């Protein structure tokens, strides 16, 4: 089992790599892999709770679709990917874990065009607690306002969970952390509220949830799950374009994502929020939803 805190290339355990479980430290690729140089890499972030991967097939479907958006095909079916994830979890002896499938173009050709390169798939699992500091999650995390914006969808495959699209997210989060914030909220190319660097964002006003329309950024699986849970709880959800100046009128704010789960927000730059009834309801509802359902006797 991998030990938290160790560099990721020095951990113990097993990684599923092109159909075979290999020792963790042997799961390597060549420095001239196309995915490293040209961003032809897609991935997923998933969590296992109680030995079951939450919405595993939905994540596998998105992984395959992301690859197609980058003009390559992962040579495994959804069922095979689901089974490989479950096997990797079992082989590493974990029941509560983060799950990372990643697919990329290999090293047969080096250049922008690489249509004949082999497509690789690897799956790793490891223990990963809350994405944000537990105490900060209770009070609400602090977000900076990112300088970079989510690009126009005419310029990128915005529905793909592709590695290259996260470059500006890394830059923005680094800058936010250096300024004492936990993360940063990004606007889109029109100057509208978009998302955080790795999570979708929601606001509350008069008991109604407002969240940006995902027309130029990833419509997260956790995002869709939480919207469903809110509506099941009788909470109205409005998906719409949100202007930054509207933030002063919202009372609650939270972010969602596989890593973040449901995390309350206390401040975004100079805007302030108080984690309240809606946020706590959805935190509890999500925690219940991700637990494996017990089979009837």
Word description of this protein:
This protein has 297 residues and is an alpha+beta fold. 26% of the residues lie in helices and 27% in strands. It has seven helices and 16 strands. The protein has helices at residues 34-38, 56-69, 78-91, 134-139, 167-178, 221-232, 277-289, and strands at 14-17, 20-23, 41-43, 46-49, 52-53, 97-105, 119-126, 141-145, 183-187, 193-196, 200-205, 208-212, 237-240, 252-257, 261-268, 271-272. Strands 8, 9, 10, 11, 12, 13, 14, 15 and 16 form a nine-stranded mixed β-sheet that branches. Helix 2 (56-69) crosses helix 3 and helix 6 packs across helix 7 (277-289). The model has no long low-confidence stretch (mean pLDDT 95).
Question: What tags apply to this protein structure?
Answer:
alpha+beta, 7 helices, seven-stranded antiparallel β-sheet, 297 residues
Number of strands: 16
Largest sheet: 9 strands, mixed
Shape designation: globular
SS content category: alpha+beta
Mind telling me the C-alpha Rg?
Answer: 19 Å
Please count the helical segments.
Answer: 7
Q: How helix-rich are the residues, as a percent range?
A: 25-40%
Q: Would you identify the regions where 5 or more consecutive residues have pLDDT less than 50?
A: none
Q: Give the SSE order as H and E letters.
A: EEHEEEHHEEHEHEEEEHEEEEH
Mean of pLDDT: 95
**First-to-last CA distance:** 33 Å
Kindly estimate the percentage of residues that lie in beta strands according to DSSP.
Answer: 25-35%
């Amino acid at each position: 089992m991998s030990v938290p805190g160790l560099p990721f290339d020095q951990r113990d355990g097993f990684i599923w790599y092109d159909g075979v479980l290999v020792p963790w430290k042997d799961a390597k690729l060549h420095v001239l892999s196309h995915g490293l140089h040209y961003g032809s890499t897609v991935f997923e972030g998933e969590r296992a709770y109680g030995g079951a991967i939450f919405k595993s097939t939905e994540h596998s479907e998105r992984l395959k679709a992301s690859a197609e958006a980058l003009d390559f095909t992962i040579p495994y079916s959804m069922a095979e990917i689901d089974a490989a994830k479950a096997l990797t979890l079992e082989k590493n002896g974990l029941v509560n874990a983060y799950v990372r499938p990643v697919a990329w173009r290999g090293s047969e050709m080096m250049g922008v065009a690489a249509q004949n390169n082999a497509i690789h798939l690897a799956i790793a699992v490891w223990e990963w607690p809350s994405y944000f500091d537990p105490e900060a999650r209770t009070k609400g995390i602090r977000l900076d306002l990112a300088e970079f914006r989510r690009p126009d969808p005419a310029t990128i495959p915005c529905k793909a969970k592709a590695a290259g699209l996260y470059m500006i997210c890394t830059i923005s989060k680094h800058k936010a952390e250096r300024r004492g914030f936990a993360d940063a909220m990004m606007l889109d190319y029109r100057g509208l509220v978009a998302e955080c660097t790795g999570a979708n964002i929601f606001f509350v006003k008069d008991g109604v949830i407002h969240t940006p329309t995902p027309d130029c950024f990833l419509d997260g699986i956790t995002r869709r799950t939480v919207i469903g849970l809110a509506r099941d709880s009788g909470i109205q959800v409005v998906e719409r374009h949100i202007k930054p100046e509207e933030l002063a009128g919202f009372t609650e704010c939270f972010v969602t994502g596989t890593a973040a789960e449901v995390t309350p927000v206390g401040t975004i730059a100079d805007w302030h929020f108080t984690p309240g009834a809606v946020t706590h309801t959805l935190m509890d509802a999500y925690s219940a939803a991700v637990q494996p359902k017990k089979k009837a006797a």
